[in-house]
Every structure is written in C-alpha cells, then in structure tokens.
Amino acid sequence: MPELSILTAAEIRRLVGFGLAELEVVEEVYPLISGGEAVMPPIMRIDVAESNGEIDVKSAFLPGYPGIAIKVSAGFFDNPARGLPSLGGFMVTLDALTGIPSAALFDNGYLTDLRTGLAGAVAAKHLARKEASSVAVLGAGVQARFQIEALMLVRPIERVAVWARRREQIDAFISETAERLSLDITPANSAGEAVSGADIVVTTTPATEPILESTHLQPGQHVTAVGSDAEHKRELGPSVLERAVAVVDARSQSLRLGEAHWAVAEGLDPDRLVELGEVISGRAPGRSSTDEITVCDLTGTGAQDTAIAGLTVERARAAGAGHLITT
After folding, report:
1. Longest CA span, the chain
2. Burial level of 210, CB count in 10 A (0-12/13-18/19+)?
3. Alpha carbon distance 205, 147 (integer Å)
4. Lower Cβ count inside 10 Å, N or C end of the chain?
5. Cα 229 from Cα 213, distance rounded (Å)
6. Eight-class DSSP state of 57
7. Total-model pTM
C-alpha cells in the first residue's frame, strides 16, 4: 500500500536551512526554467480582500526530479497585529513516476521563505560585485532576515542598513538579527538613506506603491526585488529597470505580475529582460562592469518549490524523520 510521510514545521527546520547544498538546489532550477525544460503552470491566486490576504498555488515538474511539489502559500498581511506570522502554508509532493502523494510538508511557509532567501543569494552571486559587503534592506520582516542570512553564503557581508515603515519593526529586526549573525546593523530614516552607499539593495515588502526610486540608485549597486508577486504589488519606481541590467526569474511570469510588467507598461523594451537562468548558464551576460546597476525581479517559481521540497523529503527519509501513514 502507498505510504505518505508527514513532516511538521519543527522537523523541516531541522532538516534544511542556509547551507551550500540548499543554495545549489535552488540555483539549479533557473537554467531549467530558461531552457524551457521546467513544466510550470501559471500561479493560481485567490484574493481575500476583507482579510488583506491572498492564497497562491504553485507547482512545477522538473525532468529528472523524483517528486513534484504542489504548494499552497497564504499571505495575510494583518496577521502581525494579531501576533501571527504574515506568511503560512504547506506543500504536498507527488511521486513523479506514479503521481501518488509521497509527503505532506506542514512547513507554515518556512520552505517558501527559505527558497526565496536563497534565490536572492543566487541573484547576488551572479549579479552583485564580488567585493560587495554592505546591504540595504527595505522591509523588516522574516524575509528581510532570510535575505541577509542567505547573502552571507555568497558575499562577505559586514554591514546592513534597514528601513521599514514602522520603527518598532526596525528595532525588532536589529534586536533579533544583529547579534545572531554578528553583523553591524543600523536603522535608516528613509529608503533613500538606507540605500545610499550600499552594495546590495533588497526590497522585501508587500508594497503596492514604489518604495525604491531610480534617484536612490548609485553606480555599481545590485538590487533584488522580491515583493512583487501579484499584479497589484510594486516596489520599484519608474525607470529603475530602465537604468539597469534587467534580470527576471521567469520572463512570462514577471511580465504578468512582477516588477517587469510595470516597467514594460511604462515603455521598457521587453527584449531587454534577461532570465536569471540564462545568466547562470552563460547564455546571456549579467554584470559586465563594476559601474553597472543590476536588478533581479524575483516573483517566486513553482520550480523552486519542487526543488526545495524534494531536498527536504530526501533528507527526511535518510534521517528517518516524519510520521509515516498508509494511505
């Protein structure tokens, strides 16, 4: 009889985290996306306006991978006022040969946060200057912390400036992050102040109006934008992508709901958009000089979910973790 492995959030956190193997697993999916090998349907999104929330469903089949993940991700952005995390959800993996469910991963959004943080590190690995050591992060939630921790895998990060709309968020961020990661983290009074002098800029908010303007940017900076994963969201102002080497995780998806769709509507030539997988595989250039500005628009892909879920299930089986039931 088929067996299903059930994993809790605590078990999943013990199995996967910010390691080089996890980084590699996320990095490997981008050439599959840009090469047309990933079978990745459009995101299904359910808006829950009365609760300031949304539910996204993502999935992908990756040739050669033993499982296919289907992820249900919930973002309810008033939750912090209720003492609850804003992101949650779970994943189910199905055997790629038989289609039989193989695991249920009740991660409460952890795997989404993890693979998003690692995706930011992959973008910086291929687009930021090699000596980049200072970061400006706009937003002070879980993803802001994950982005910084992941960046430390690929660049010698020493200093961080953080800005968020609420000062208590900034203070909590510094208190929770600075000592744990042994970083010099300072508060900023504005997005522009945070960005000034930073080597890497990361935007991590659910903003619907731009928070990072073209006038904030300086030569040589790299920007990773992770917040725009729905048609109404936007973190980058007009002409930010126009000034930069413009990179996206998945072209068709970014043109539908990412920063790229705003930029193209305002006149950016869509042919200027380069997929991250093309940069990784060498089929397209990324940064070609230390003075260039690079921007990577990360909308989040089902391919990442299949990859990180597969690694989690593999490690769970090797460790004998989880609760096995017969279905």
Report:
1. 61
2. middle
3. 12
4. N
5. 19
6. E
7. 0.94
Q: What are 73-131's pLDDT values in tens digits?
A: 998 989 988 998 888 899 999 999 999 999 999 999 999 999 999 999 999 999 999 99
CB-count exposure of residue 159 (10 Å: 0-12, 13-18, 19+): middle
CA pair distance 151, 132, nearest whole angstrom: 10
- Which of the residues 58, 71, 130, 233 is marked catalytic? 71
Residue 71: active-site member = yes
Tell which residue, 227, 218, 181, has the closest CA to residue 196.
Answer: 218
CA atoms within 13 A of residue 208's CA, in its CB half-sphere: 5
Nearest to 199 by CA among 252, 151, 267: 151
Edge-to-edge strand order for the sheet containing 222-225?
184-187, 159-163, 134-138, 200-203, 222-225, 294-297, 245-248, 274-275
Token pair, residue 198, equals: 């930073």
Question: Where do the DSSP E strands lie in 108-241?
Answer: 134-138, 159-163, 184-187, 200-203, 222-225
Q: Which residues contact 37 (CB under 8 A, 6 or more apart)?
A: 62, 63
Q: What are the structural domains, with CATH classification, of the chain?
A: 3-111+303-326 (3.30.1780.10), 129-300 (3.40.50.720)
